[in-house]
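Database export, one record per block. Field names are fixed; values are copied verbatim from the stored entry.
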Amino acid sequence: MNARLQTILRRLSALVVPLALFFSMQTGAQAGSYDDFFTAIIRDNATTISDLLRRGFDPNTPNAHGDKGLLLALQLESDRVFFALLQSPQVDVNAHNARGETPLMLAAIKGNLPAVQALLARGADVNQPGWAPLHYAVSGGTPQHAQIVALLLEHSAYIDAASPNGSTPLMLAARYGSDAIVQLLLQEGADPTLKNQQSLTARDFALGAEREHTAALIAAALRPRPPGQTAAERRGW
């Protein structure tokens, strides 16, 4: 073996350990960032999240269960982290969890109006096949839920969206939501005559939950309307 070749081999050998150490450090750093990311979500530590994002950490990294940061932050009510993640242009505002829920759906069911407003501003999908954000929003009974319902309708949410079993937002509101939401849906044109796959109407949903007053509201919407009466007059405007 000539001297030149021996020199090259010695230099290559000298590089093996530093390169191995470099890749080991990189792998360790990535693992550390991963743990830091999800710990920060649990602790609602927005400072750590912002620092990781500045260093190039992917905000759409899933955890071991496939859940992404934006969804976890909403689920855990880590609001500071949620808004820190939403600052990233790369964050997927329409990410789905294992149950097919989006950030907008989780924000809606929790009555988190600021989160709903922020997601809509980022172009979150209001309509999707199957369960939709409006189904989730009408299932709550707080004034914030009613505001979210109105906001989703303003953003062209389909008012008679059918769930996988054909249930509409009005049906869910009749069983779980407030009377204010039921009235809002009826005023905005929700169809109280629709039936789901079990042949149940919104009124049936209300009666099944022993909500007689809600059932009466829906029954009133089913009565024949006087000829020539405008929609605004029917609503008392």
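Remark 1: The CA atoms of residues 45 and 218 lie 46 Å apart.
Remark 2: The radius of gyration is 26 Å.
End of record.
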